[in-house]
Amino acid sequence: MSTGSPGIALPWNRPLLFRPLQARLHIEAARQGMTDLMKLNHLNLSVTDVTACVEMFETYFGLMRSDMPVNEHMAFLRGEDGFLLSMFRAKEVNYPKTFHVGFLQDTPEQVYAIRARLLEGGYAVPEPQQNHGRLTFYFDAPGGFVVEVESFLGE
After folding, report:
1. How far apart are CA 147 and CA 127, in angstroms?
2. Which among 29, 32, 120, 130 has most CB atoms closer than 10 A?
3. What tens digit of pLDDT does each residue of 3-23 get?
4. Rounded to two decimals, what is the model's pTM?
């Protein structure tokens, strides 16, 4: 079972970032004769509160500290699939209105479960909505950006 912060077990045991989509992309690439897909290696976020963002990503999304620095100025977290999320502190953060960081879950039940955990943790999280064949919600993360949690319906 995956773990977030020490002593906190997450209720799912899978890479959190786009696993079903990744499998579909590999199948389609094989059909088209492509042998290698480009893999997203990292994302850098400017955030107003590095410490709170680290706590959120570890506790609720299963990211783990890498072997690079994690402090109040910068942090480097890894997903189970090797994806690196880097964060650097900024005085102000102004992302475009539609910018967000999305986490795909395997089932709608997992969307509801993570929402419940976020509510217990004091986050203001709206009720999930059905939208374009997905169950999804968005919330304001500490640090000045938006996080989405979603699952496809009917898969």
Report:
1. 14
2. 29
3. 333 333 333 333 344 445 555
4. 0.76
